[in-house]
Amino acid sequence: xxxxxxxxxxxxxxxxxxxxxxxxxxxxxxxxxxxxxxxxxxxxxxxxxxxxxxxxxxxxxxxxxxxxxxxxxxxxxxxxxxxxxxxxxxxxxxxxxxxxxxxxxxxxxxxxxxxxxxxxxxxxxxxxxxxxxxxxxxxxxxxxxxxxxxxxxxxxxxxxxxxxxxxxxxxxxxxxxxxxxxxxxxxxxxxxxxxxxxxxxxxxxxxxxxxxxxxxxxxxxxxxxxxxxxxxxxxxxxxxxxxxxxxxxxxxxxxxxxxxxxxxxxxxxxxxxxxxxxxxxxxxxxxxxxxxxxxxxxxxxxxxxxxxxxxxxxxxxxxxxxxxxxxxxxxxxx
Length: 334
Ligand code: AHG
Ligand code: MN
Ligand code: MN
Prior knowledge:
Fructose-1,6-Bisphosphatase, Chain A, domain 1, globular, binds manganese (II) ion
């Protein structure tokens, strides 16, 4: 029987890999794992608990209806970051503005975290996989001061760590600090994330495409051309088409493609001219993981991680997955 390696042990062993290693990033990753366990416990029992399913009754700044679990997860992560001492401020998809933590230990924190506390909210009430996504940067502002907007608006290439938690048939935490990608499965019996997917690599190509094809008629012609030419069966049935798989939880669609090979597309449309997905909370962290696993992430035209953000809730078109498949899709865009 091989030795079980817990996430905690793994992080401690890898500490010297971290840029500017001094233990804080390790502690921060451990804090994220604890928050993830708490959220996982809530997700697993949501149908049994009062006030866990359904809509909260508010819309967030992006005009989307907040679910109760969106708010519960958001509070859990914020509370962990606020009390951990490694983080001076955060920005979350669910809050209008970023938060600068105004307490003595947090003001000294080296990092900011940008996150989507609950991804795939439309799947919460129907017991389909959902997730959390996070992205960690070193602060730009001086230690001891309050975090500011400049700390939040950094390019994806400046990320020091990124990851996601998938509340699927099991709960998994997948993360990178720029030295490859590793995946950990939560063993519910011992309450620990254990290394289950070491050094994850995204196959160079695959046969799965994920897109909300309900939007096909409001996409540019190149997208239609890509789907028809590469993904769909022809009338003659000559070529082997790809299989369409769309969960509607980005984390879950991404995770499947990371393991099996595939492409995920959320292009801009005439109704969402900038696309739907959020650069800072969703696209950059997944782009970092994709690239670290050998895949790519683009807007269809340029590398996602090189975009200089100009606002917190900025959206971008997103093409992510197996290298060859994303390149094929890009070749169809003029
Ligand atoms: P969130 O639940 O955090 O708002 O994100 C939803 C995102 C993403 O998870 C998913 O892939 C996509 O929106 C689904 O959008 P459509 O329903 O438009 O397909
Ligand atoms: Mn999301
Ligand atoms: Mn969300």
